Amino acid sequence: MSKLEELIEGLCPKGVEYKSVGSMITRIREKGKIHPTIKQVYVVSKTLGIVRSEDFHENEIHSEDTSNYTVIRHGMFAYNPSRLNIGSLGVLTLDTPGLVSPMYVVFTIDESKIIKEYLLYNLRSSLVKNKIDSLKEEGARFRFDFERWDKINIPVPPLPVQREIVRILDNFTNLTAELTAELAARKTQYEYYLNYFINENVRESDEYIKLGELFDFRNGLNKGKDFFGKGTPIIRYTDVYNKRFLHKEDITALVECNERELEALQVSRGDVLFTRTSETAEEVGFSSVMLDDMDNCVFNGFTIKATPKTDKLLPNYCAYCFSTIAFRDYVTRRCTFTTRASLTGKTLSEFLLVVPSIANQKRIVSILDRFYSLCNDIYTGLPAEIEARQKQYEYYRDKLLTFKELS
Question: Quick check: 66 and 33 in contact, CB under 8 A?
Fold first, then answer.
């Protein structure tokens, strides 16, 4: 018998009392104007919980006047009533008191009844998420007001049982956090070797060649929405933006095109596609290479196709050599901008690329392939391991938070 089972058998053998969340929490309305010395501003992230605004990856900008902001202290909870359905809720674990935007609701808990970590696990469980969704305020936008917590009941076992459940679930979340940190470290390592092997570790035998000598460039197909949904496979902007390698099974969109368009815009193995236009310069020039032989396939007008004119570059090498810092810097500096950022084949043709021997390209690809798979493969890489651990955690979380109700 596990420690948890022993605790349940000894402390609540006949079941567990279910209580409303509202009965165990108290709303905090303390405002910043009465605490002028409190300057730290926090934000609530759906993935990171409550973090300092300056550390938030989305760089959320807060008002200079924080007098109407709500004070939050260590151990208090905050959530966004309009984003609770996507997990915008957390508890402040830092010791420094701070302020959160008036859009957030802040509350404290009755620690004689419930442990904050145990409550947080419950509020993120599938059962409570579904209940929140069913109780949301009707209207154009989601909203979950504080009073609605009275309508959500959760199991509240004795505190020793709560602590043991928290300990078990913490082990799962800590493992996921370790794997996530490992993935971040591996991505940094991959980026280092990508730039080192392609731009820094240059050999005397390597050539410097302009892309215009290596590729022919052409813009893609523009069609009205009525032409899409049937016909010939077409590579979309998002296919190019999201994937460094393209295979036949990745191309799921269809478009009607005539023989002239198909002949002019045919995509073949070894072709490199670049995103041509976007709202920002940082999103143009992303590349993807076709690695399969295609019977019939065209590409959309928001991308540029680069068709090889020589055999100096391996297709797999092209998937990496246009992802370097040097190439990204060139693209963002040279693209034009009117209402949108835009890239042309002429601009691409002027880029000076380091071209190693085919043997050295194969060596570089073999090294980078291992890093890329480890960082991106959804079946065998770290993302697959993280997803598996997350599913395992969610399964045991919901299982451990389910009790026979005390009659």
Answer: no
**Cα–Cα distance, 197 to 199 (Å, whole number):** 6
Contact partners, residue 180, CB within 8 Å, separation at least 6? 386
What's the rounded Cα separation, in Å, for the pair 191 and 195?
Answer: 6
Q: Are 349 and 217 in contact (CB under 8 A)?
A: yes
What does the angle CA 200 – CA 203 – CA 206 come to, to the nearest 5 degrees?
100
pLDDT (tens digit, 9 = 90+) per residue, 117-146? 999 999 999 889 999 888 877 666 788 889
pLDDT band at residue 57 using 50, 70 and 90 as cut-offs: low
Phi, psi (5° rounding) for residue 133? -65, -35
CB atoms within 10 A of CB 388: 12
Residue 168 pLDDT exceeds 90: yes
Question: Residue 254, SS3?
Answer: strand
- The predicted pLDDT at position 388 comes to 85
Which residues are within 8 A (CB) of 184 and not within 5 positions of it... i.e. 6 or more apart? Answer: none
Tokens of 21: 């969340």
Q: Dihedral sign, CA of 94, 89, 158, 12?
A: negative
Query: Residue 220 and residue 65: Cα distance in Å, rounded?
Result: 49
Q: Is the pTM of this model over 0.70?
A: no
Q: What is the per-residue burial (b if ≥16 Cβ within 10 Å, else e) of 23-46?
A: ebbeebebebeeeeebeebbbbbe
